[in-house]
Amino acid sequence: MNAEPGPERKRLRQVPPGRHPMLHRIFRADPLTVREALGYLRERFDGSAAEDVIAKVELALAEVLNNICEHGCQRDAERLGGRVHTPLIHLCVARHTGGIACAITDDGQPLPPACLDPKTLPYILPDPPDEDIIAMLPEGGFGWYMIQDLTASLSYFREGRRNFLAFIVPVTEPLIHESALAGEG
Amino acid sequence: MQLTLVPERDRLTIHVDEKRLDAAIATAFKDQVRSLIDNGGPTVTLDLGGVEFMDSSGLGAVIAIFKAMPEGRKLELTGLTPNVERVFQLTRMDTVLTIRRPAQASPRDQARGAC
User: Fold this and answer.
1) Packed helices A51-71 and A143-150: angle between N→C axes, nearest 10 degrees
2) What digits encode the pLDDT tens for the residues B32-63?
3) What 3-state DSSP class applies to B30?
């Protein structure tokens, strides 16, 4: 459970009856602002789809946003006088009939195209199991594998100075008002 | 970083009292647990029962802790909540790392965060 917001804040963030939640946020790429944005996602979207669907959205977004924090910073001598530029992220999430759609843009380093290639796990499990497998395990390289596993319709393009990444996390249950209408009939 | 230590005769249990094991705290978490393991018994249990969310940075920190275990000492994980379990399953780390599950009642019978 996330920390309970104050009553006024909660009222403002509540999704009106019969509407579907959506979210738009602009923030600097930093692990703490990412954490805060994901808390906001939970406030807006909890209850709008099955818990495991929202959890997958949260995890996929965490991986994408962490990557921008870790790899997106750039040094552009001409533009910034040699200072490091921390990317500014725009995050948009909306509930649609078929799933929860996410769009993330940032003005950081271009995403290497290989990130979107089909991924395998960054290690191969030996058969039979090796006693020393622990020592050989990688401590990273799981992010894009997980993003690809959790999402569908993953797409990317670069325009000007911005990266645009979009995906959906599919849902199988109907939208709230559709199920309510079905109940009335 | 909130950790609670429960030393017993032959084991050390470390409860992770953080709701999120994410990029914001992964490095501090790894460093702190590794320093605590130095003065424990032969078996160390890392109880993740309070962790509601973990990303690949948190997973990387857990793997690093496994790799840093001194020769002859064991590390096991316990108390995996559904969202944490998902990350271990997706990456197939559940087949490699030692995860102790409650003997009675299958995970789906248990309320989230119980025990």
Assistant:
1) 150
2) 999 998 877 789 999 999 999 999 999 999 99
3) helix
Residue A167 has pLDDT above 80, yes or no: yes
- Contact yes or no for A146 and B91 at CB 8 A: yes
Cβ–Cβ gap B56/A58 under 8 Å: no
Domains and CATH numbers, chain B: 3-102 (3.30.750.24)
Structural domains of chain A sorted by starting position, each given as residue range(s) with its CATH number in brackets: 21-184 (3.30.565.10)
Q: What is the pLDDT of residues A125-146, one digit of tens each?
A: 766 666 678 888 999 999 999 9
Contact B55 A62 (CB under 8 A): yes
Q: Are A125 and A89 in contact (CB under 8 A)?
A: no
CB-nearest to B92 from A35, A121, A140 is A121
Which among A32, A129, A133 has CB closest to B24?
A32
Predicted-complex ipTM score: 0.87
Are B67 and A150 a contacting pair at CB < 8 A? Answer: no
